[in-house]
Amino acid sequence: MAALGDQSEEQAMAAQPKPQNRPISNIVIVVAMQTEALPIVNRFQLTEDPDTPFPQGVPWVRYQGTYKDLNISLIWPGKDPTLGVDSVGTISSALVTYAAIQALQPDLIINAGTAGGFKAKGASIGDVFIVSDCAFHDRRIPIPVFDLYGVGLRKAFVAPNLVKELNLKVGKLSTGDSLDMTQQDESSIIANDATVKDMEGAAIAYVSDLLKVPAIFVKAVTDIIDGDKPTAEEFLQNLAAVTTALDLAVEQVINFINGKCESEL
Ligand code: ADE
């Protein structure tokens, strides 16, 4: 019997996710806020699925349609049933990503959304980044190895040809469940070497890694974290305009993906 950790090469290969050798045909786009989602829904003429594959009573919304050779579903976690605001953050995004992968078996996940950006790392309002790495900045567990689990660093699917062809900026993403930033968060974000900060990415990366579905993260900058404006004010002020940049970037990304295999991205 093979000892633990003594896998044959074949076993090790079998454990790796197999890049599909056929063109990508089924894409799930996960978007946290309605304001971010609707321009993308309209761009691809997606329609709301009245009969979603999700449990009865959850607020999760699926828009779907075909665009070129692609089957596209956009999943929005919907409004909080009690408070009526968008269900932003890591819990909702992980749940909908899990449910969407289980139900729809996508070839690829795209998480599209807005983010705060660090001007010290080259971010400006309206910039769109493709994320190379995702990590958390608010899961502090100061015990050996649990500390690394808390940070939860995962590589995103960077798609080097896509980045080159579309001339998009690439940066690291740090995720936490707050729009603002404590000093401890800031230290962790710096340790994560992040250029952009959001409230969903690393949670979606966790699920995509768990279920072995590649995930691309497209993040458009609404506010400058190391600037002098209050974050919530700057975010709300720029949200509508920046979603236009996000929507255009998602269209470019989808057009690039159409007709290509994972290995060509
Ligand atoms: N989304 C947009 N701006 C953000 C910020 N500063 N922090 C977290 N998520 C964001």
From TrEMBL:
GO biological process: L-methionine salvage from methylthioadenosine; nucleoside metabolic process
Source species, domain of life: Eukaryota
GO MF term (any one): methylthioadenosine nucleosidase activity
Ranges of residues in domain Nucleoside phosphorylase: 27-254
Pfam entry (one): PNP_UDP_1
Protein name in the entry: Nucleoside phosphorylase domain-containing protein
Organism per entry: Glycine max (Soybean)
Gene of this entry: LOC100800253
